[in-house]
Design goal:
Elements (H helix, E strand, L loop, with lengths): L1 H20 L4 E2 L4 E8 L4 H16 L4 E7 L5 H12 L5 E5 L5 E3 L1 H8 L2 E4 L4 E3 L16 H14 L4 H31 L3 H9 L3 E3 H6 L5 E2 L3 H8 L3 E3 L5 E3 L6 E5 L3 H9 L2 H20 L5 H19 L4 H17 L7 H17 L11 H27 L13 E8 L2 E6 L2 E6 L9 E8 L2 E6 L14
Parallel strand pairs: 1-11, 2-3, 2-12, 3-4, 4-6, 5-7, 6-9, 15-17
Antiparallel strand pairs: 7-8, 10-11, 13-14, 13-16, 14-15, 16-17
Helix pairs in contact: 2-3, 2-10, 3-4, 5-6, 6-7, 11-12, 11-13, 13-14, 13-15, 14-15
């Protein structure tokens, strides 16, 4: 009997273990589906918006988060921050490239690969995931062969040529960046069971696919024309989360909540514009300079400090080349110095050159949405030079004008003698009574010209009877 009981217990444990091991995936009970809309460049504002809304969706126990995306790409740091949040998300993340005509290029391709479910609308595309370096020599994709050939030719013609070495360094750095990006996208493809072959070509060859081609190649999971169709096609699909749990989606009757970018994201997106940051930096430098040269007003100093701090915060958000920032500041200082130092244009020209070169070094113009056009830089430099020239011209004209206030202004003006005593003489000058001293005898009513000052005593000389010498005199 005892053996039979133990045998039955062992059999029950085996059956229980089998049932537990093969239990069906837990189904989400409809619930709420949160839809985040991301249009435009992937930047610091986008990653901050996604992280905050993901936390909020989890806090209110949403069943699913859908990332509706249309992007030309963006910054690598912001993209990786979003992907880290997706991989560690406590709820399923679906990325849908839509509506029709949208795209998930560059950084968008990485995010699509990282999502638990990848979907696209008809007439959309993804790919072109070749990384673009910022502030790095040889940063343009697709021209490796040309650069290598040029470097080889330079090396053959001039052994040890520095230009060839620089090109070789740039090529090596870009090759490292591409290898890293290819391995990263390939690892995401392996994690989600998607095509690693296209991942490799998207990085190394900037390959792109349409939605139909992507579905046939195993890059995405489904095609849906709009959100209602997406909800129907997601219903019943199983996804595996980062903590090992498997969930079956139940979205056919789910409540869909669409969340648009809030004021915080719009403000961060505005500050993440390098052109605005550049303008704010110039305003801050000029305003602080004006405050230092004309102290006491206060408003330029306060406004300039605010603009400069906001510009530095914007640069901190962006992966800028700080050598470019330093050149921009140097260029602005040199252009300001041109208005006050007798450099005969050398400082001004040097400032314009430093400003334009610094702007070119600041950001890579091929980074989508984050480039600074050369025309913008030249226009801003010319406008700054014109402003500085106008200020310098105004200062020069002011310097040539006669003095109209203070002790120095009294020299040459006319006064009228009012009192003459044994202790000295007094005269009325500009409505004030002054002690006067003269080498010639004075009498009350005499008109005199002020020739200088000795402390609080005016040095004067009598006027002749010539009416031409009486111009500008004060009334007796």
């Amino acid at each position: 009997m005892r053996r039979t009981i133990w045998a039955l217990l062992a059999l029950a444990l085996l059956i229980l273990g089998f049932l537990l091991h093969n239990r069906p995936a837990a189904a989400t009970t409809g619930g709420e589906v949160v839809v985040l809309r991301i249009d435009g460049v992937i930047g610091p504002a986008t990653s901050d918006f996604f992280a905050r809304e993901l936390r909020r969706a989890h806090a209110r126990q949403a069943a699913l988060l859908v990332l509706a995306m249309d992007t030309p790409g963006g910054l690598d740091t912001s993209m990786r921050a979003i992907i880290k949040d997706i991989l560690a998300a406590p709820l399923p993340i679906v990325t849908w490239v839509g509506p029709e005509g949208a795209r998930a290029a560059s950084a968008g391709t990485y995010i699509l690969y990282a999502s638990h479910v990848a979907a696209m609308a008809p007439a959309t595309n993804l790919g072109a995931a070749t990384p673009v370096a910022i502030g790095m020599p040889g940063g343009k994709p697709g021209d490796d062969t040309t650069r290598k050939d040029k470097a080889d030719d330079n090396t053959k013609e001039r052994d040890g040529n520095s230009a060839g070495d620089a090109a070789g360094i740039g090529d090596s750095m870009m090759e490292k960046v591409r290898n890293d990006a290819a391995a990263y996208l390939r690892s995401l493809a392996q994690l989600r069971g998607r095509s690693g072959d296209f991942a490799e070509r998207a990085v190394r060859e900037a390959a792109s696919l349409s939605s139909e081609e992507a579905l046939a190649a195993g890059v995405i999971d489904l095609i849906a024309a709009d959100l209602p169709e997406l909800m129907k096609k997601l219903d019943g699909r199983e996804v595996k989360l980062g903590d090992g749990r498997t969930q079956r989606l139940s979205t056919a009757a789910a409540t869909v909540t669409q969340i648009a970018p809030d004021w915080r994201m719009r403000l961060l997106a505005l500050l993440s514009n390098p052109q605005l940051a550049l303008v704010l930096m110039m305003i801050g430098i000029y305003a602080l300079f004006f405050e230092f040269t004309s102290p006491g007003f206060g408003v330029p100093g306060v406004a300039g400090a605010i603009c400069l701090l906001v510009a530095l915060y914007a640069f901190q958000l962006l992966p800028v080349n700080w050598a470019g920032v330093a050149l921009l500041a140097l260029g602005a200082i040199l252009m300001l110095a041109e208005a006050f130092l007798p450099s005969f244009g050398a400082l001004g020209v040097g400032g314009i050159v430093a400003f334009v070169v610094g702007g070119l070094f600041l950001m890579d113009t091929e980074a989508p949405g984050f480039g600074i056009p050369l025309a913008f830089l030249i226009g801003l430099a010319i406008a700054s030079a014109l402003v500085i020239g106008a200020v310098g011209s105004f200062a020069a004209r002011t310097r040539r004008r006669p003095i109209v206030s203070g002790r120095e202004q009294m020299a040459g003006t006319i006064a009228t003698v009012t009192t003459v005593t044994a202790e000295g003489a007094w005269a009325l000058a500009q409505g004030e009574s002054w002690r006067v001293r003269s080498a010639s005898p004075l009498a009350p009513g005499d008109r005199v010209r002020i020739t200088g000052l000795d402390g609080l005593t005016l040095l004067v000389e009598p006027l002749t009877a010539d009416p031409a010498n009486r111009r500008g005199g004060s009334p007796p």
